[in-house]
Amino acid sequence: MRHSVTILLAGMMLVLGGCAVLADRDLTTKELRCEYRVNPLGIDVLKPRLSWVMESSNRGRMQSAYRILAASGEEDLNRNLGNLWDSGKVRSDQSNQVVYEGKPLKSRMQCFWKVRVWDKNGSASAWSEPAVWTVGLLEPQDQQAKWIGYDAPAAAKEDKSDVLSIDKCSWVWFPEGEPEKSAPIGTRFFRHKVNIADIAAESAVKGKVKRASFRLLADNEATVFVNGREAGKVAGWSPGQVLDITDKLTGGINTLSIAAANEGDNPNPAGLAGKLVIEFEEAKTRAIPIDHSWKTSNSEQENWKSADFNDSSWVYAKETVYVQRSTSNVQRSTFGERWTSQRLFYRRRLICARPFRLKSR
Ligand SMILES: [Ca+2]
């Protein structure tokens, strides 16, 4: 009898997940992040860094090993098939910034991934909930695609509470090193065109704008121009900085230009974040975030704020880390250089991040 029970248990272990690992329910992995962000869109690095947090009711438990699976489809991942990457069981306590070492990534690819960990006694967690990242446009020839058209539908799908909030925006900057940690002192210039008629058409409204406002954060300050006219300044990263630009917007194509300055005596963190929020008379609200589709330059050129300025020599802005809904204190830690600050950032994100569920297709 005892033998048959043993055989039955062994058989069950083999069936579970296709390998003889029985999950320890007290051990879980959560808060999966890619390049510091939850399910980020438009990652522009070839080997993104993956992070997670191990949790257990027993505070003494430490990670001793991990295994990551990455797949190009959610179904493959659900079947534990890492067709992009199966790290195998790696003996390591590292759970932060583990570098993706799978198949080469291509522009616009979706990568689904999950992780499981082992503690020092060899007990394994179940697989984490799946997470995903989307690759941006990696090659210059890819960038000839219509960036605005590529991003606008996603923005148009947001509901109003999302539209007004900026905590899912990314900080952006001129792509120079890691601006969220250290960037040269100086002004960087940003440009983007917004076609109100297109946005209205996508939203099935007639296009009369009731109110248009810019919600902005800047490290350290930013001056906004709409169709070449100054619309106001913001400084710092306290929430609630709103510029009303209703009277500066036209019903057609608008040119948004921002001069953002990183201040100080020595290189320090820099960033610009925010979105243009457009409220139509027909009770619909749409947002255009400042993101990697904006063009940027590190030098001021003549006429750079005008609609007909040729910005083809400008580069695309780099998205760095997420903005959080938080006090200025925690926001400050987003840019912290010290490891302890980063840990604080991760912990607080648990509270701020919106729960994410992959859509079944
Ligand atoms: Ca700064």
Report on this structure.
This protein has 361 residues and is α+β, with helices and mostly antiparallel strands. The chain has 2 domains: 25-134, Sandwich (Immunoglobulin-like), CATH 2.60.40.10; 148-352, Galactose-binding domain-like (Jelly Rolls, Sandwich), CATH 2.60.120.260. Helices cover 17% and strands 34% of the residues. It is built from 7 helices and 19 strands. The strands form 4 sheets. Strands 10, 11, 12, 13, 14, 15, 16, 17 and 18 form a 9-stranded antiparallel beta sheet that branches. Strands 3, 4, 5, 7 and 8 form a 5-stranded antiparallel beta sheet that branches. The structure holds calcium ion. Calcium ion is lined by residues 219-220, 262, 264, 268-270.
Secondary structure layout plus pairing:
Blueprint: H1 2-15, E1 28-34, E2 49-55, E3 63-71, H2 74-78, E4 85-86, E5 90-91, E6 98-99, E7 110-119, E8 131-134, H3 147-156, H4 160-164, E9 170-173, E10 186-195, H5 196-202, E11 209-226, E12 229-236, E13 242-244, E14 253-262, E15 271-280, E16 285-289, E17 295-297, E18 315-316, E19 318-322, H6 328-334, H7 339-352
Antiparallel strand pairs: 1-2, 2-6, 3-4, 3-5, 3-7, 7-8, 9-19, 10-14, 10-17, 11-12, 11-13, 11-14, 11-15, 15-16, 17-18
Helix pairs in contact: 6-7
CATH-defined superfamily of the largest domain: Galactose-binding domain-like
> Which value, in Å, is the CA radius of gyration?
23 Å
Structural class: alpha+beta
Percent helix, as a range, is: 10-25%
CATH fold category name of the largest domain: Jelly Rolls
Uncertain regions spanning at least 5 consecutive residues? 5-19, 141-160, 325-361
Give the total of domains.
2
Associated small molecules: calcium ion
Kindly, what is the distance between the CA atoms of the first and last residues, rounded to a whole number of angstroms? Answer: 46 Å
Please write the string of helix (H) and strand (E) elements: HEEEHEEEEEHHEEHEEEEEEEEEHH
The geometry reads as elongated
Structure annotation, total helices: 7
What is the average of the pLDDT values? 78
Q: Report the strand count.
A: 19
Biggest β-sheet strands, sense, barrel = 9 strands, antiparallel
CATH architecture of the largest domain: Sandwich
Q: Mind telling me the CATH class of the largest domain?
A: Mainly Beta
Strand content: 25-35%
